[in-house]
Amino acid sequence: MKTPLLWIFVWILLPFTGFPQNENYVYVSKGEYTIGTKQYLENPLRQIRTDGLYIAKYEVTNKHFAQFVEATGYKTLAERFHNAQVFEPGLEEFRWLSDSTAYWRFPNGISRGGIENKMDHPVTCIAYQDAVAYCQWAKVRLPTLEEWEIAAKAGSQGKYFEGASLENIGDYANIWHKRDHLSADMSDSYMYTAPVGSFLPNPWGLYDIFGNVFEFCEGTLPRDKERKVAHARGGSWWCSKNSCAAFNTVFIGSVNPNASFSNLGFRVVPIENSSATSSHAYR
Ligand SMILES: [Ca+2]
Q1: Is 277 left (phi over 0), alpha (psi -120 to 50) or beta?
Q2: pTM for this one?
Q3: Which pLDDT value is given to residue 22?
Q4: What's the CATH number for 19-270?
Q5: Nearest partner of 260 among 43, 92, 105, judged by Cα
Q6: What residues does the ion ligand 1 have nearby, CB within 5 Å?
Q7: Residue 10: per-residue pLDDT
Q8: What is the DSSP string of 151-171?
Q9: What is the CA(143)–ligand 1 centre distance, in A?
Q10: 208 CA from centroid of ligand 1 (Å)
Q11: Is 273 a residue whose pLDDT tops 90?
């Protein structure tokens, strides 16, 4: 009689233990976590408490954004205003091109090709508002700045999760490996985005925390003051060690909430009690 009772007990306890619950999400256990760093005034070293949450293993893909658009007829800001920021090799550092033809189906402009064969890549060229609209439809939400960082750190302290470092970042992340952006970088097989999950995960099983695309989060910083600013984390395929270097767990990027960039996307958190076991796969 003791064995079945024990298993029932374990089964009841599992949702609260941090044990991954399905193929799309990782469960972050209830508890206190250390985030921030002494070197970064806007993200100071501190303890944060969470009641526990699920977070997607992968960035939201073109496939899933296409399902949203098909179901709702939604038009992104880039489509409505005919303006998105795109990249091509040859640009000076931190220079992007405004392209009236770019939107999520042609994330670097029509002349640079579409996403037909990239449905498992992260969706990009979406503005913060577009990400929020997707979330409302999918009954999910963006992680907060703090939730993203807890999940990214995976129990580690400092700028990288356990195993990752500035030296081996290329094992874990789709980044830019050249010193500048004057010529193409295909050294890791991908100049722009990569299929989600192409690189090693962090210790909790989250992929592309660093690189591939910056990920929108909810939250504000003191420097926002009265301005409307969106924040995104983790760095992107564009980020190199020489410039940007935002592929770490403490940097917090800021962007105009109406701007659409081809290196900016998101991952999601299920809304409490709604979709932790959703059939809506995030890969
Ligand atoms: Ca990412």
Answers
A1: alpha
A2: 0.89
A3: 66
A4: 3.90.1580.10
A5: 105
A6: 208, 212, 234
A7: 41
A8: HHHTT--SSS-TT--TTTHHH
A9: 13
A10: 4
A11: no
Going by C-alpha positions, the residue among 268, 271, 273 that lies closest to residue 57 is 268
- Give me the mean pLDDT over the 117-130 stretch: 98
How many angstroms separate the alpha carbon of residue 263 from the centre of ligand 1?
A: 9
In which residue are the tokens 């931190």 written? 94
Nearest CA among 21, 117, 10, 109 for reference residue 63: 117
Three-class SS state of 84: strand
Residue 88: partners with Cβ closer than 8 Å, 6 or more residues away:
97, 108, 112
What's the one-letter identity of residue 160?
Y
Q: Which of 202, 268, 207, 273 is nearest to 15 (CA)?
A: 273
Helix (H, G, I), strand (E, B) or coil at 88: coil
Task: Output the pLDDT for position 226.
Answer: 87
- Give the tokens for residue 194: 């990569």
Map residue 19 onto helix, strand or coil: coil
Given a cut of 90, whether residue 17 has pLDDT beyond it is no
